Amino acid sequence: MNQQKQISTDNVVRLASDCTQQYINEMGWNSLNDIRISVTDIYETVIYPMHDISLDTTLDLGEYSGQRVLGKMIPSEKIILIDKSINEPSGDPRFPFTLSHEIGHALLHMGEDTAFK
């Protein structure tokens, strides 16, 4: 069981690395000084086209255990939900962090039938 979890984690790290490398290639960057990574751009240019995972930023996700829910991934529906209280245009730093977190759930739990926050 522990080895199976390690294999799964290794696969996610490899998949995330592959997606990031593809994004870097598509941006035409040649050196580390060129790199300006936008999680939203990675989602739009790699995650959505390659994995068909939708993103919805228009919903109020409410609270869970007294804490505001900022993001949620529903693997069976291949959708990432980001609470409408945080949005990219406002520059809220919670947005790229939450999107990255939910992309991780998407890649790790693709095809499962559970929602992750």
Structure description:
This protein is α+β, with helices and mostly antiparallel strands and 117 residues long. The protein is built from 3 helices and 5 strands; from the N terminus they run ααβββββα. α1 (2-27) packs across α2 (39-51) and α2 runs parallel beside α3 (94-108). It is globular, with a radius of gyration of 15 Å. The two termini are 24 Å apart.
Quickly list its features.
alpha+beta; 117 residues; globular; single chain; 46% helix
**Which consecutive residue ranges, at least 5 long each, have pLDDT under 50?**
none
H-E string: HHEEEEEH
Main sheet attributes: strand count, strand direction, barrel closure: 3 strands, mixed
The radius of gyration computed from the alpha-carbon positions, rounded to a whole number of angstroms, is 15 Å
**Average pLDDT over all residues:** 82
Class derived from helix and strand content: alpha+beta
Gap between N and C termini, in Å? 24 Å
Work out the helix count: 3
When the domains are counted, the total is: 1
Proportion of residues in extended strands:
5-15%
Secondary structure: number of strands = 5
Strand order of the biggest β-sheet: 1-5-4
What is the approximate shape?
Answer: globular
> What fraction, in percent, of the residue positions are helical?
40-55%
